[in-house]
Amino acid sequence: MRTPVVAGNWKMHKTAAEAAAFVEAVRPVASKVTEREIIIAPAFPALAAAAAAAQGSNIQISGQNLHWESHGAYTGEVSADMLVAAGCSHVIIGHSERRQHFGETDGAVHLKVLAALDAGLTPIVCVGETLEQREAGNTETVLREQWSAGVGGLEPAQFARLIIAYEPVWAIGTGRTATPEIAEAAHAEIRSLATERFGGEIAESVRILYGGSVKPSNFAGLLDCPNIDGGLVGGASLPAGSFSDLLLA
Ligand code: 13P
Q1: Helix or strand run (H / E) with residue 15
Q2: Which of 217, 220, 212, 216 is nearest to 97 (CA)?
Q3: Which protein residues touch ligand 1 with a CB less than 6 Å away?
Q4: Closest residue CA from atom 5 of ligand 1
Q5: Along the 249 residues of the chain, how does pLDDT read in single tens digits?
Q6: What's the pTM?
Q7: Could you tell me what percentage of the chain is helix, strand and coil, using 3-state DSSP and rounding each to the nearest 5?
């Protein structure tokens, strides 16, 4: 059985004080949730405050990005060890906004995954097609390429430690959620890529999250799909009330 994951990607929202207040507000609800893994991904300056507020709770903290080097002259970047020291257990890698606005490539995703694993972090690796790619009938090819170049070269034991997130770019922040049928088809495709490369046992154990306009009202329908193991949620993860509703959906 795969434990479902509810992960909030806060993107460029919330100060340290706002992050701590959010965690205080969500803790009582989270403490009643035993069948789900709970993760929030604040911006870098809010990580330590969120981690301090979450101490002793079942709320885990994730970075939104990292650099693959351990240290050095990389202005503006943050290493895996720095995330661990700030209280992170997870890190999002290869989000479409990083690919789109900051030129992140599948090669960079691969290096970042290795650095995160080395530091003991759980990578949450994002893949997903744009609207143009979907309409051209290229969804499967795009997913296959991103998956192969980003994580296909890992050792089986490394791959087994990942969480994958399928985030169709056309569904992010648009209010246009993929239907459960569309999402399930992509998730099944991703799991079959994992089966081909790493075998059924590992492929069946890896969680594949859906991301793109997830809300409390559509989350349960997505979670009902056999290959959807949770959500990576942007906008609806920001208000404590809405995030709490997602935990209980
Ligand atoms: P929204 O839930 O705001 O569409 O964002 C999804 C996302 O990008 C999560 O990583």
Answers
A1: none
A2: 212
A3: 9, 95, 167, 172-173, 211-214, 232-236
A4: 234
A5: 899 999 999 999 999 999 999 999 999 999 999 999 999 999 999 999 999 999 999 999 999 999 999 999 999 999 999 999 999 999 999 999 999 999 999 999 999 999 999 999 999 999 999 999 999 999 999 999 999 999 999 999 999 999 999 999 999 989 888 999 999 999 999 999 999 999 999 999 999 999 999 999 999 999 999 999 999 999 999 999 999 999 999
A6: 0.98
A7: 50, 15, 35
